[in-house]
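Let's inspect a concrete specimen:
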Amino acid sequence: MGFTMGLNLVLLFAMVATNILSLYHLSSTLQSKPPAPPPVPDHLIHQLRTIRATINHLTHLHPSAAATKPTKPTIPSELLLYTRISPIASSCRNHPDLLHQYMNYTPFTLCPLDNDLAETLILRGCHPLPRRRCFAQTQPNAATSLPTNPFLPLPDNANIWNKYTCKSFTCLSRFNIDLGFDMKVEKLKFVTYKSDLDLPIQQLLQLAKSSHSVLRLALDIGGGTGTFAAQMKLQNVTVLTTTMNLGAPYNEAAALRGLVPLHVPLQQRLPVFDGVLDLVRCGHAVNRWIPVTAMEFLFYDVDRVLRSGGYFWLDHFFSKGVDLEKVYAPLIGKLGYKKVKWAVGNKTDSSGVKNGEVYLTALLQKPVSK
């Protein structure tokens, strides 16, 4: 027991002595100055300065996330423009008075006969939502049988005439035979050749056949009463017609002829899937009155819906001669299509002579591979 106690005292003394030595060494180290570092060679200093300058330059070009403030993503300018001219909901807020007038109706009754108001909104870039709590009005005394031939006279009792000055298709035909309601006149369209500006349907079919192409599905943009679709129907080709009721019942007339009218304006995205059409025709509605930007949207949307090898037909497109050369021909050329037909002629009516206008008829073929 005495031996064990002596050993514990020795260990205690050793521990105390070690702590005292450690404290002494630490205090002497703090009081003494650290040794001077060895000098840095000049070539290393030069390399460090070069590296620092490079880092500063890269930081200036690509500032770090911490150094820059977060910014909101910018909206493409062409998208902003498209929202002003295309019939999508975002444009409706710009016309609250018209929209309020359109939605002012009695629920669970017949909808007001104001398609002209709906078209006014559509042409201003607002395609209003369907009225969900009123019923569309139809002609109560409509004929039980409709013409199967698209060139027979149209029945007057199959339409509602309250908003039109003319109360019959016969009246519309007398008012202006070029409106498309005189079936005797319409029957001769697209089948005769008077000048290089004309492209009769038989010639169109022959051109397609010579290039080993097939015409089955087509779209007629701004097709009025649907005469082109009617002529192509006789050739077993299905054509959809986009048309508006601007002053006359074009949609009703096309439907009475057994055709499919699409009630969409020129600036709307074509309601057709990508790459499915064999032919797109732009008639008299597509001309120099359309803003160039909107026309460019239209042309590229035509390219979207055309299949490889499909045809784009500009039929009697008119503009000023100088604009055709400097604006529209380069715009068309951007598509990179093959020129199957390109004919230019003077527009000889009073407006054409006054404004130096010309007609262009162009049949363009989309490349098989782009």
In short: The domain at 190-365 is CATH 3.40.50.150 (Rossmann fold). The beta strands are 109-110, 134-135, 217-221, 238-242, 260-262, 277-282, 306-320, 338-346, 357-365. The CA atoms of residues 142 and 157 lie 5 Å apart.
